[in-house]
Amino acid sequence: GENVEQHPSTLSVQEGDSAVIKCTYSDSASNYFPWYKQELGKRPQLIIDIRSNVGEKKDQRIAVTLNKTAKHFSLHITETQPEDSAVYFCAATLGGGADGLTFGKGTHLIIQP
Amino acid sequence: DAGITQSPRHKVTETGTPVTLRCHQTENHRYMYWYRQDPGHGLRLIHYSYGVKDTDKGEVSDGYSVSRSKTEDFLLTLESATSSQTSVYFCAISANEKLFFGSGTQLSVL
Fold first, then answer.
1. CA-based nearest distance A105→chain B, Å
2. Is A89 an 8 Å CB contact of chain B?
3. What are the pLDDT digits (tens) for B43-56?
4. How far apart, in whole angstroms, are the C-alpha atoms of residue B85 and residue B101?
5. How far apart are the first and last CA of chain A?
6. Which of A63, B22, B26, B107 is the most buried (most CB within 10 A)?
C-alpha cells in the first residue's frame, strides 16, 4: 500500500516569513495529493490539492508543487500570519480518493509574532 | 460541514464494553470513511464504504466492524473496547473526489 512521509514534524517561523512542508510518497501510481489544515480541537479541513497531471497549483498565499519523478510534493505558505498556526497534513491516493487517503503524520506550524 | 454529523461527540467507556459510533450524512454521498487520529500517527483509515452494504477494511481495521444499511448512516462498532482504542474518531465523505470530515468523536476507554 501507499506510504507517506512528512517533514518536519514541527516548524517555527517568524510572522511574515515563508513556510515549506515536504512530503514523499511510495506508490508511483498515486495521482491525487491534498493538504489539510487542522486547528486545535477542530476537524481537518482541505486547503489545497493537486493532481498528477499538474506540477504546481496556487491559491492566494498557499501553493503546492509536485515532482512525480522524485515522488515528492510540498506545501508553500508565503507571508505567514498568526492564523496559519495549525497542524498540516499531506495525503496521497489512487483514483481520486475513493479507497481513502493515506496521510502523513502531520507538521505543527508555529507562527512566532 | 458537508452535511456530516457524528454522534456522540464525547464518550467514556470501560474496557471490554461494546461501543458504537454513528456518522450521518444528508447529501447522499456514496463513499464514507472512518479514520482514527492519534498523536504521532496522524490520521489512519479504519474502514470505508462505497455503498449500502458494501464495505472494506483500511489500514487499522483489527478490533473494529462497520455497517451501512442506509446511504446516510455509517456505523463504527468496537465489539470489546480496549485502552488502545482511546482516540479521536473522524468520519469523512467523498464529494467531487475530495474528502470532507465530520467534527469527530473523542473516545476514552478506561
1. 4
2. yes
3. 999 999 999 999 99
4. 20
5. 41
6. B107
pLDDT, one tens digit per residue, over A11-54 is: 999 999 999 999 999 998 899 999 999 999 999 999 999 998 88
- The yes-or-no verdict on residue B96 having pLDDT over 90 is no
Chain B residues with CB under 8 Å of A105 CB are 40-42
Judged by CB atoms closer than 8 Å, whether chains meet at A43 and B101 is answered as yes
d(CA A1, CA A11): 28
Cα A112 from Cα A15, distance rounded (Å): 6
| Whether B99 and A32 lie within 8 Å, measured CB to CB | no
Interface contact B45-A101, CB threshold 8 A: yes
d(CA A30, CA A99): 12
Handedness of CA B3, B33, A21, A109 (dihedral sign): positive
